TrEMBL record:
The keyword Transmembrane applies. This is Thymic stromal cotransporter. Keywords: Membrane, Transmembrane, Transmembrane helix. It comes from Lynx pardinus. The chain crosses the membrane at residues 17-39, 51-72, 127-153, 165-186, 219-240, 252-270, 282-306.
Amino acid sequence: MALGSLGSSEDRRSLRLILLDLILGLAGFCGSMASGHLFKQMTGHHSGQGLVLTACSVSCATFALVYSLLVLKVPESTASPRTALPAVDTVTGTIGTYRTLDPDQSDKQGVEGYPPSPGKAVPKKTVIALLFVGAVIYDLAVVGTVDVMPLFVLREPLRWNQVQVGYGMAAGYTIFITSFLGVLLFSRCFRDTTMIVIGMVSFGSGALLLAFVKKTYMFYIARAVMLFALIPVTTIRSAMSKLIKDSSYGKVFVILQLSLALTGVVTSTVYNKIYQLTMEKFVGTCFALSSFLSFLAIIPIGIVAYKQASWLQYGDIAEK
């Protein structure tokens, strides 16, 4: 993600990062489609069950490591110089223009007729912190759902076999494709915060539907509602990259990823415990909780959007 940010301009960064996720999704889709069949082929040979899948995984991971060490290079940043005039985005239906999420640009341009007001300036660290909080809460919802889903589909009322599980996972990876198309479309007319909220609403609604799934077709309907679920975290990364210097991309993304990883460990433990306690009473409890968390994550993003609205009026953000 850091290399992708360095190699893209600000106005195309969200699209570049979601494109990287799209490649991940396509690879995951192919792997998921094949995994159930490969595992089923080894069912008759108990001693070697899963050996083919393990060998494939290790081989791919080894190739990725070698490729990263020997082939990948740090690209030269394509970001505009700090002394250059800032890029200005125009929103249909909005009088005047607003600046992108880049507080380091020297020009303090605001809406015509509204001069900058230092008292209304917003520290960029506050905005980054709010984006972090939104990403972590949303990741709680996503990780919890993803971890519980394999257990959910194996039990009543669905009771899927190996091949059906592979197809179900593949359906999940189509979200990478639909999210990419979503960013491709929405980035032309919406701000980053708006795209993030769209993705959170998409996932929250789908998770709520999952809580009441009784048939296989209902499961796929719920997954279809989640078609923009990948947009939030990717777009949050893009928004953060517009608030920091090029040399800090790697550090900030590593901190964010570590935060998400630690959150994921805790979430997996808690959600599995909740699932064990509630599977006989209401099997969809975890999905309902994920839906709540997804909508809760909108709050910090909404605050950032409100601050952006103040930039419309005052055209400034503090350099702190």
